[in-house]
Design a protein that fits this description.
Blueprint: E1 2-9, H1 10-13, E2 18-20, E3 25-29, E4 34-35, H2 51-60, E5 68-74, E6 80-86, H3 88-98, E7 104-105, E8 111-112, H4 119-127, E9 129-136, H5 139-149, H6 158-165, H7 169-178, H8 186-189, H9 201-210, H10 218-225, H11 232-248, H12 261-268, H13 275-287, H14 297-302, H15 318-335, H16 341-344, E10 360-364, E11 379-383, H17 384-391
Parallel strand pairs: 4-6, 5-9
Antiparallel strand pairs: 1-9, 2-3, 3-4, 5-6, 7-8, 10-11
Bound molecules: zinc ion.
């Protein structure tokens, strides 16, 4: 990998600066030779009147803005082009300022645009030197480097990194669908998918689903489809999952957000569900005080209400267990049988065994799923192996 350190003035960098207001992107600089926001870069997030203004204030005070990184690409004719690897937020803020799209607030609280600044201040900005580290290398070298430089500042997340590594037509089209803030469907998707669309997290989920619900498989999928001009498969699969969820569950509970819908779709989409019955069960389980994990309600219903572990049904507390154990053990000792009623009925060596408290578990006499309460009256202590056997029935 070839690297070199250069300096550019703000005037040079901002020559031919173009800002796309609609997409909130700084596009080009260095007289067109610099791509400020290559497709793989995160969206411009400094436009908040604080971070962007802080960049300009730093320059006016003569503070350093930190190192900027370019990826250098030399074409067949030996002409160099550059892409911003790190520093896009800073350069876009500077570019917006010198093109009068961003104002700073002066000491009197009045907004000041670049064109309204005194001549010496304008000069100060234009002559401000940006320190740029330029790197020319292979894909894997760039990837490695990207990881390193992003340790400082807001690090790129996994998907942003993958978008960088596999940049191309496919990523461009995928971003236009899944991280486009003007896409009206995003709000509906967020009922089921968690994460920030701008940080590529809806795209990440869509890719995870289409690559067999395997987060590790996303890179492979992106690599295989890197030069595809369409994202039909990705879109179709994502939409199929979302439509299936919304047809089975009428509700839009907050606990539905971020569940593994792709996996659930694969497992259960061949099964038929009556949305009215499903909705009734959802409401009942939501109202059940023994259900501790509401996120598990959906998979529990889809699976035919068998796997209670998904609901993390409330267990008996220690005081209840101890009290039931004491009474049960006293009775068993007096009768000369095991304090586990299942052992007592058996013909094996445990028939008369008195188990210690730690060797037993609490069991619902009437199963929770049949309406049994988690209270002392419905609690029985069983030896661990009988409790396990009963629970698995
Ligand atoms: Zn037993």
């Amino acid at each position: 990998m070839k690297t070199s350190l250069n300096t550019y003035t703000v005037k040079e960098i901002c020559k031919g600066f173009v800002y796309n207001e609609l997409e909130g992107k700084g596009l080009f600089g260095l007289s067109g030779k610099l791509t400020i926001q290559p497709e793989y870069q995160r969206n411009y997030i400094y436009a908040d009147g604080k971070r962007d203004v802080a960049v300009i204030d730093s320059m006016l005070k003569g503070y350093p803005l930190g190192l900027i990184y370019f990826n250098k690409i030399t074409d067949a004719n030996g002409d160099a082009r550059f892409e911003v690897l790190d520093g896009q937020q800073r350069i876009t803020s500077i570019g917006r300022f010198v093109t009068n799209k961003l104002a700073i607030i002066d000491s009197n609280g009045i907004p000041q645009y670049f064109s309204g600044l005194a001549e010496d201040k304008r000069q100060l900005i234009e002559d401000y030197k940006l320190l740029v580290y330029e790197c020319e290398g292979t894909e894997s070298e760039i990837k490695e480097w990207f990881k390193t430089i992003n340790i400082a500042g807001v690090p790129l997340n996994n998907q942003e990194l993958l978008n960088a590594v596999y940049s191309g037509e496919f990523v461009t089209a995928a971003k236009a669908e899944f991280s486009n803030s003007t896409n009206a469907k995003i709000q509906m998707w967020q009922t089921y998918v968690s994460g920030d669309p701008k940080r590529q997290q809806i795209l990440e989920t869509a890719l995870e689903w289409v690559s067999s619900h395997n987060r590790q498989g996303i890179g492979d999928y992106m690599s295989q489809h890197r030069h595809d001009k369409n994202i039909d498969e990705l879109k179709l699969y994502f939409n199929a999952v979302v439509e299936w969820v919304s047809s089975v569950f009428e509700c839009t509970e907050s606990e539905m957000r971020g569940l593994e819908w792709g996996r659930l779709y694969e497992t259960y989409h061949g099964k038929s569900f009556n949305a009215t019955d499903v909705q009734k069960r959802v409401l009942e389980l939501y109202a059940d005080p023994y259900v501790k994990d509401r996120k598990g309600i959906f998979e529990y219903i889809l699976g035919g209400e068998i796997d209670k572990k998904l609901l993390n049904v409330r267990v008996f507390d220690e005081a209840t267990k101890k009290s039931v154990y004491t009474i049960q053990t006293a009775k068993a000792t007096a009768a000369g049988v095991s304090n586990c009623s299942y052992c007592a009925m058996s013909d094996n060596a445990n028939k008369c065994k008195i188990w210690k408290l730690a060797e037993m578990d609490a069991d619902h006499v009437t199963a929770w799923s049949k309406g049994g309460a988690t209270d002392r009256a419905n609690c029985e202590m069983l030896c661990k192996s009988h409790n396990r056997a009963k629970g698995n029935r």
